[in-house]
Amino acid sequence: MAAGKISNMKGIARRWLLNSVGMIMLLLIILVAILSLVIRGSIYSGIQASLDGRSGELTNVFADYGRRSPAEFNAVARAYVENFPEKESMELMVFNSSGKILITSIGFAPDQTQPMPDYQLALSDVEGYGTWTGSLTSGEKVMAVTRVIRNNNGSLVGAIRYVVSLEEADKRVLSVIGMLAGGGMLVILLIFTSSYFFLKSILNPIRQIGATARRIAQGDFEARIQKSNDDELGALCDTINDMAVELGTAERMKNDFISSVSHELRTPLTAIKGWAETIVEVGGTDQATFSRGMGIIIRESERLSGIVEELLDFSRMQSGRMSLTMEKIDILAELGEAVYMFSDRARSENKFLLYDEPAMLSPVLGDINRLRQVFVNIIDNALKYTEEGGTISVAAQEEDGLIRVTITDNGCGIPAEHLPNVKKKFYKANQTIRGSGIGLALADEIMRLHNGSLEIESHENIGTAVTITIPVLSETGDERKQEIHA
């Protein structure tokens, strides 16, 4: 039953059976064949030894034959045959000097047509010994040994031949081969049975993993695999379950991102549309309303342009097409300009923006627009997450060939569980504050391309400190403009 089920398996099971079980079967077949040959050889060797032992008796029986007459040889040979104790298990033949059979132990007339290669070998052998294993004309398989007797002059006076049927021996060999084959089949059956349960313990979880993976691929990120064992498959189940959690989180973050971006785009568009309609209605009759409306339209258009540009930058970052125009720049000037950009906003929001401007900083090799973008993004975030009356501090220092810009605030801070993820794309720790969730990911990528870093340290309800690090321009550095691509 198990073997039948295994024969219907495909893929891994089929390859495993062909490679592993197939090899084991081949080895068992070879082993059974070798053991069969060894056992057959052992049985045949025993029979050969028995025949050789019996034929060796002739040395004693005819020890002084060289001094006797032919008549005495015939008498002694007949007596030897008649008194031979193993007539039931082997046949004896006595040949005279001319090769004619004088007497046999079976009592029937001798058949001179039977093949006797052992007799011919004994005649040509120096020791007068010959042996042969083959089949008679009747098809019976036999083993024969012939000893020739010579007188003191070396003349042939006769020979005695011992013949044993190998049918019983072959039956014993076949019986042993049958037992070995049966044992081999039992081993193969056990291997197939154990293989079936082993493959079942692997293939069933794999099928479950495949089915769950398909559900995850189709968007069901709540699908989970039930782990049954703490082995490699169990580790794979944990990995896929973790992947589903990550994909689900990424999907939620993506949806939140789309919602946030839609809201971010809708707000300036609504303002632009509303004030445009107002200006059309009042025309040039209300100059104050006209001027105010145009100012709002311009600011909201710039805000809209900034959002679109940030999305384009993010798209370039994702596709690896973000490029930097690197040149020698005064990072102190860019940092001061970024702080100045937010001075009016900080005052209008009743927040304090403090800048501890150093006397001088070494130049750096960087993209002036991208670095300004990083400073603007971090200061904007600090203002967004700081309550009215709070303080944002900006400081810079140079140490060990690095320039570190630190922007701190005493705002709401970032909860510890969100801190490791705030630089990931789409991630927003606080959904109530406007923003797309890609600003920090973009800023981190820009600093990476500058061989710098962006580190965030925050404590909930205490505040946040962002440290931007960039190497200074070496004295041997190439100050010419150059393009760097992500």
Task: Write up this protein.
With 486 residues, the protein is of the alpha+beta class. It has three domains: 218 residues, 2-Layer Sandwich (Beta-Lactamase), CATH 3.30.450; 67 residues, Signal transduction histidine kinase, dimerisation/phosphotransfer (DHp) domain (Helix Hairpins), CATH 1.10.287; 163 residues, Heat Shock Protein 90. 53% of the residues lie in helices and 18% in strands. It has twelve helices and 13 strands. It has a five-stranded antiparallel sheet. It has a five-stranded mixed sheet with strand order 7-9-10-12-11. Helix 7 packs antiparallel against helix 8, helix 8 crosses helix 12 and helix 9 packs parallel to helix 11. The longest helix has 51 residues. The N terminus is likely disordered.
